[in-house]
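The data layer described in this paper is built around a simple, fixed record for each protein. Because each token names a local backbone shape, the row as a whole describes the fold. We quote a single record here, exactly as it is kept in our systems:

***
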Amino acid sequence: MSTDAKHVWGPLTEGLRIPRDLDLGDRARALHQLGVTPGAHRTLVTRVNETLPERDATLLVSSRLWPVLAHRMHHMAQQGVPFAAHLARIAPDTAAWRDGPPSGTTARLLLAAHHALTTPLDQALPTGPRVSTTAARSRSTTTAPDTAPPKQPAPTEPAAPAHRQHAAPAPRQGHRR
């Protein structure tokens, strides 16, 4: 499995088929791997530019993970789902994803776009992280770091399997040298 395929796994890929050899370092190849033709890509970029403010559209389309979102939008378009209407919900200046430090803007925008594309139009967008059923099965998010069970000390010698554990022999009595 490629490094990109491993690193991209998460909320953005929920419900998508991602090639095991995904190469996000080569945008044209990544789009091809994800089934987004050059013509479809031009259409997607045009629609994003028409839907979002220029700065947001540029940030989204220029991000390394853009091919994954383009794949989702292309799939939606093929099914007749109005992806631009979904995406427009993150455009307002008051959108929740805009709150936070400038250093996390791209990550928040990518996640907001994902939420907008995967949340039905008649439902409000999540204002915080949403746990996918796939992610929930793979790791627990219910235990806060300060309430985690205490770590057990590492054993000083390897534990023997249960079927090989024997009681220590009793000391012999009455035999001295």
